[in-house]
What we know:
- The protein is of the alpha+beta class and 188 residues long.
- The protein has two domains: 4-90, Alpha-Beta Plaits (2-Layer Sandwich), CATH 3.30.70; 99-174, Alpha-Beta Plaits (2-Layer Sandwich), CATH 3.30.70.330.
- 30% of the residues lie in helices and 34% in strands.
- The strands form two sheets. A five-stranded antiparallel β-sheet has the order 2-3-1-5-4, sandwiched between helices. A four-stranded antiparallel β-sheet has the order 7-8-6-9.
- A hairpin with a 6-residue loop joins strand 7 and strand 8 (138-146).
Amino acid sequence: xxxxxxxxxxxxxxxxxxxxxxxxxxxxxxxxxxxxxxxxxxxxxxxxxxxxxxxxxxxxxxxxxxxxxxxxxxxxxxxxxxxxxxxxxxxxxxxxxxxxxxxxxxxxxxxxxxxxxxxxxxxxxxxxxxxxxxxxxxxxxxxxxxxxxxxxxxxxxxxxxxxxxxxxxxxxxxxxxxxxxxxxxxxx
Length: 188
């Protein structure tokens, strides 16, 4: 069975991405190094020291195995994509765990639908949909647990909206210990 260290060797984080770089260009660059399971690019606005609103782009690429990820790290770090040198490092997400929280689900989504959708990323060990206690209808929230962190990470980084709903969000579920610590801290 895989352990948490596998995650850091299959997923890379990249940043300093030119606004001119397309997702296709980035995917092509990373595919030169091996089999890419997923690539996600994000943009966020920020205010610089001169109070200018600017945009930064970053993303994650997940490979099918750690060997391809290592090759990609060495081959792509500080290489040019659309006229700008991108930076690459092994992703080390401290929140990574085997359970994902899935929000904004369509009311028609069932446990079977979720299991079938997420099983393409790896072995799903449990699916729970949160129901309203009175109506027994879905609240649009579910928890999907994978057999290992690597598969959960692939699913989290590769997820795109589909038959599950229009604005579905997927993130790592916080572990019970983290929730307890947060609640205790707020009571003091």
